[in-house]
Amino acid sequence: MKTSSYLTNLYILYVNDLFTYGTYLGFEKEVVKDAIHDVFVNISAKNQILDEVSNIKFYLFRSLKNRLYDIQRGNKNQIGLEGIAAEEVKPFQINVNIEDQYIEEEERREIKKEIEEMLNSLTDKQREIIYLKYVQEYDYKQISELLDINIHSCRKLVSKALSNLRKKYGVISILLLIN
Predict the structure, then answer these.
(1) 163: containing domain
(2) Are 112 and 99 a contacting pair, CB within 8 Å?
(3) Cβ count near 109 (within 10 Å)
(4) Which of 60, 63, 67, 127 has the CA that lies 20 to 30 A from 14?
């Protein structure tokens, strides 16, 4: 059984990453905040749920993604959009955030512009997988579970994304993106 201080520490540790991921999935900020709180309320209500979890961060990311899609499906039903497929997924959007103090520097502006251009040349799924692999540092097994694809497809998608970037921007530019 986890204590409330343990949950508070988990929240403090992961809330920013969860919020960023939720907004990158294309959801409104307020919806993401509500979904994060729903995830932690659910954990709090089911005291022993985390006892069986081997990777808490992964569990939180997956729970948030599931909660956001539950909210999305619920909103479609409320406004009568039955014709829209329940499996429709919002595009994964990455907005590169660079500290305000660096934004004033011309070199940083150029780097940001190049990275955004590189990421925007990828498909939504490729952007999401690059984010999960290189920003969140998930392994292929975790990514495959989160995206509900097999590990081979996961590796292939990363490889294809990097190959596309390499062809279009060269090896040096890719190092800038993943480091």
Answers:
(1) 100-178
(2) no
(3) 13
(4) 127
Residues 105, 173 share a domain: yes
142 in helix, strand or coil? helix
Boundary of a domain, candidates 78, 110, 135: 78
pLDDT tens by residue, the chain, 179 residues:
456 788 888 889 999 999 989 988 889 999 999 999 999 988 888 877 777 888 889 999 999 999 999 998 887 655 444 444 544 566 666 555 544 454 556 666 676 677 778 888 889 899 888 888 887 889 999 999 999 999 999 999 999 988 888 888 776 656 655 55
Residue 162 to residue 122: CA distance in whole angstroms: 9
- Asked whether residue 15 is domain-assigned, the answer is yes
Q: Are residues 46 and 106 in the same domain?
A: no
Q: How many domains are contained in the chain?
A: 2
Taking the C-alpha atoms of residue 130 and residue 110, their distance in angstroms, rounded to an integer, is: 21
| CA–CA dist 28, 22 (Å, integer) | 8
